[in-house]
Amino acid sequence: MKRWDLINVGLCRLVALLLLAAPAAGLEVEGDFEIDEAEATVITSKRLTFDQTHQYALFEDDVVVVDDSMRLTADRLTVFFDDDNQAELIEAVGNVVMQQEDTTAWARKATYSVEEGTIFLEGSPRIRRGRDVLEGDTITFWREDNRMICEPRARLVLFPDDGGSRDFLLGD
Q: Are 61 and 44 in contact (CB under 8 A)?
């Protein structure tokens, strides 16, 4: 399962938990409530606002998303849901950092369209893999096609050693 699919599943679980807990607010729960986070997507922030009427969840301040394949940090993360309560658009804003293995991406804003399978980075986006760096005004990834476009003012800095240009362009 891809990292954004895991976020989608994790957010849907969160929404289901919130919906189930709402009517029971004020009821005392007996026994221990333990969560096995080993295969889960965990989102933490200082504040969470969930609005079922307007179909969104907003995580604010010190947002951290962690799963078994990636880590994302941002100032704010908004998840927009469709009529079936499935995540359709995820938007991270402010000091966005995405890390996966030896690749790190930075941007002011990252938008993930679940249906299109695209991740759009804007606001001085930069990607580093090993020592190589790609930067431009915007960077768009198509997850399923394993392709990207960096435009305008694309700049790629390649190093000829291990973890360098060949790995960056051709993959492992």
A: no
Rounded Cα–Cα distance for residues 146 and 106 (Å): 19
- Six-digit token string for 73: 């940090």
C-beta separation of 82 from 12 below 8 A: no
Q: Over the stretch 76-108, which tens digit does the pLDDT of each residue have?
A: 999 999 998 888 999 999 999 999 888 899 999
Question: Which H helix or E strand runs over 19?
Answer: helix 3-21
Question: CA 117: distance to chain centroid?
Answer: 12
Q: Which CATH superfamily groups domain 3-23+41-170?
A: Lipopolysaccharide (LPS) transport protein A like domain (2.60.450.10)
| pTM of the full structure | 0.73
Residue 9 pLDDT > 70: no
Q: Can you give the residue ranges of every domain in the chain?
A: 3-23+41-170
As given in the structure block, the two tokens for residue 32 are: 């221990």
Q: Output phi, psi for 134, to 5 deg.
A: -120, 135
